[in-house]
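Bit of a strange request maybe. I'm writing a small parser for structure token strings and I need a real example to test against, not something I typed by hand. Could someone generate the tokens for this chain?
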Amino acid sequence: MPAALAPAAQVFAAVRARRPRVHCLTNNVAQAFTANVLLAIGAVPSMSGDPAEVAAFVAGADALLVNLGMLTPAAREAIGEAVAAASAAGRPWVLDPVFADRSPARADYARRLVAAGPSAIRLNEPEAAALGAACLAAARARGAVVAISGARDRIGCADRESVVETGHPLMAEVTAMGCALGAVVAACLSTALNACAATIAAVEGFGAAGARAGAKAGGPGSFVPLFLDELHGLSGPRDQLERHS
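Reply from user aminoacidic:
Good idea to test on real output. This should exercise your parser:
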């Protein structure tokens, strides 16, 4: 690996070298795209949501993604088993409180998961507003990284805040893009780098791949394969990813 690689590219190179297993509890709409994104960066996805086996999957994984996209009773049971297994095994896990802004009951459940100690929380502006500033500040005080996606991505850690200004408007026209970013954060967290630096690297690299793909795409249909190709090359020497903070 060339010594000149930027920090974000170094993290993606570490992911590719380690090939971490990332178990994803995510919604059915996002599963295939999320799996392909993980494969593109060199990680190994698994997706079982069966409460009877999810703890074993998580215990054998290097990181966990908990995405609330389709919150059925069985999904809630599986999430409880998965979070307990990740905590017991010392695995990093990422919470993506999808649609917490659409349902008070879902927001309450997401706040309980925040209290369970995720390594990182990846969400958008409306979801962040639904959980509340106090909830997210408490999470940061406990060591969680809070990554809020938007036109300018904001990453808040215990002692610092960073802003990443990259990406492309076509990213908002592809379903499951944010869900897949949560999985990339989980993969980067598994490199054993501190959670703040790993999360910033994940957001920077993901956005850089989107910017490059968007510059060549004619629309969302052509964007997706170009985006996967750009993710696949993220650990290459041409990746001098600029950090904005």
